[in-house]
Amino acid sequence: MVSFGVVMGDITRFPAEAIVNAANRYLEHGGGVAYAIAKAAAGDVREYIRISKEAMHEQLGKDSIEHGEVVVTPALGLERYGIKYVIHAVGPYCGGRWDEDKKEKLRKAILGALRKAEELGVKTIAFPAISAGIYGCPLEGVVRTFQETVEEFSQEAKSLEKVYLVLYSERDYDRARAVLENGD
Ligand code: AR6
Fold first, then answer.
1. 121 lines ligand 1 (CB under 6 A)
2. Which of 35, 63, 103, 124: disulfide with 16, CB 3.0–4.6 Å?
3. Which residue's CA is minimally distant from atom 8 of ligand 1?
4. 68-112 pLDDT tens trace
5. Would you say 110 and 146 are in contact if contact means Cβ atoms under 8 Å apart?
6. Measured at the alpha carbon of residue 53, what is the angle toward residues 48 and 55, in degrees to the nearest 5?
7. Angle at 26 between CA 22 and CA 31, to 5 degrees
8. How distant, in Å, are the alpha carbons of 53, 66, 175 from that of 132?
9. 129 in ligand 1 pocket by Cβ < 6 Å?
10. How far apart are CA 123 and CA 92, in angstroms?
11. What is the ipTM of this complex?
12. With left for phi above 0 and alpha for psi between -120 and 50, is residue 68 left, alpha or beta?
């Protein structure tokens, strides 16, 4: 059984074996949590972009990823927190809109990362609120999609025990808690 929980914190310091990056298709890590992870892992953001693109070539043989595809990079400097892998996934761009298509793209991104975590044999994984920042998807929809997708994934999970959704601000954390507790 996989447990799902929301926590408040900075994912670049969160002690899960794998953390997920809310990336773009080209793994450019230009802003948001992607920039923060790249900076914390490698010190130099451009260097982590180079490492990410090289990993994308090796793992997928192409220059961009789709929703559901993931790329794994080493944690480098994040190892001090017990993080072993960074899994890059790409969520939908919403620009304030939310519909079934966006939800399905986010579901694919989450499932892709969860399946890769299983393949890597990790017990714990932490996600940021993918697409709820620069990509402008409503946090409530994002949180509910996380909850439903982790529940769905529970059926096929083997090594994975804990999935955390890490919210960066107290306000987002409170909103996420409200979604899980009240279903609204
Ligand atoms: N720890 C946890 N959550 C964080 C952190 C952190 N250190 N920093 C920000 N967040 P975003 P997106 C939250 O914009 O919407 C990048 O440029 C943030 O408050 O990082 O998927 C990529 O390269 C928000 O709730 O990701 C893409 O081009 C959540 O993480 C694009 O942004 C996601 O916000 C992806 O946009």
1. no
2. 124
3. 33
4. 999 999 999 999 999 999 999 999 999 999 999 999 999 999 999
5. yes
6. 95
7. 50
8. 24, 18, 12
9. yes
10. 26
11. 0.99
12. left
